Amino acid sequence: RFIVGGHFLTWDELVVTLEPMLGREVRRFRAPATLLRALGSLLDGVRRVRPVASLISREGMEYATRTRPLPIGRAWCDR
């Protein structure tokens, strides 16, 4: 396996990049990571019983709250 870092954007940088492409302001709010992950788990459970239109899931909130930049440069090989 090779783990290769790429260009990492903070959430604020991502919003600044997306807004001109979308042609509108992106709504955002600050929330604790644990709350977002719990909300994702809750919505996953609700979806098992009833269809719910939501972009929030536990997996998505794990990614959104735990992703960290990798070093850019040489590839790191895990053997």
Percent of residues in beta strands? 5-15%
Strand tally is 2
User: Could you tell me how far the N terminus lies from the C terminus, measured between alpha carbons in angstroms?
Assistant: 7 Å
Extract low-pLDDT stretches: none
Strand order of the largest sheet: 1-2
Mean pLDDT: 87
The main β sheet shows up as: 2 strands, antiparallel
Number of helices in the DSSP assignment: 3
Task: Give an account of the 3D structure.
- The protein is mostly helical.
- The chain has three helices and two strands.
- The chain starts with a strand and ends with a strand.
List keywords for this structure.
5% strand; 3 helices; 79 residues; mainly alpha
List the helices and strands and how they pair.
Elements: E1 2-3, H1 11-22, H2 33-49, H3 58-66, E2 76-77
Antiparallel strand pairs: 1-2
What's the quick description here?
48% of the residues lie in helices and 5% in strands. With 79 residues, it is mainly alpha-helical.
